[in-house]
Amino acid sequence: MIVTIVVLGLLLIQTIVIYNRLIRLRNNAREGWSGIDVQLKRRADLVPNLVTTVKGYANHEQQLLEDITKLRNQTIADQSIPNQAKTAAELGRSLQRLLVIAEAYPELKADKNFLKLQEQLSEIENTLQKSRRYYNGTVRELNIKIESFPSNLVAKIFSFEKFDFFALTDASDRAVPEINLN
Q1: Rounded CA gap, 20 and 60, in Å?
Q2: C-alpha–C-alpha distance, residues 80 and 83, integer Å
């Protein structure tokens, strides 16, 4: 009788420990996503200023500017993590094309406002990369715990679900950029 009570007590304690660990990991993943979301919002807030600045110099790039504005609006809209990752990657590629186009306009490259916006965008992209790594690390830990025995039993009982990674959706994002210094 005492042995049964001790075993049940140990199982209850183990369940509580696992449950609390799953809660902590889930909250870390949510916090990680919040960090990505903040950086995506900062980038989206920067886009109208960047578009306006470039528009004054590069009027014939209207289609690219419209695409960037559309993607910016999609980024702000509520989306699932895979959709938001896809939209964010598309916006990032479009912004890179915009910066490449800006190279053709010496007056634009010298514009103080453009230079400041370009610097802010670079800072945001670096922070966004760090946020993605943190988020994916916390998601990895949570998903491992949800799939591993005996925590998978507790996760199933309390309906814990795996999170999606913030992943690159386009193979071209993984390609090494070609650099021509000539």
Answers
A1: 57
A2: 5
Distance CA 46, CA 24 (A): 33
User: Using an 8 Å Cβ cutoff, are 128 and 36 in contact?
Assistant: yes
pTM higher than 0.90 for the full model?
no
Tens digits of residue pLDDT in 35-52: 998 998 899 888 888 888
Which residues, at least 6 apart from 174, have a Cβ–Cβ distance to it below 8 Å? Answer: 168
Q: What range does the domain containing 133 cover?
A: 2-165
CATH of the domain at 24: 1.20.1440.20
Pair of tokens at residue 18: 């696992």
pLDDT at 174 over 60: no
Based on the structure, what is the number of domains in the chain? Answer: 1
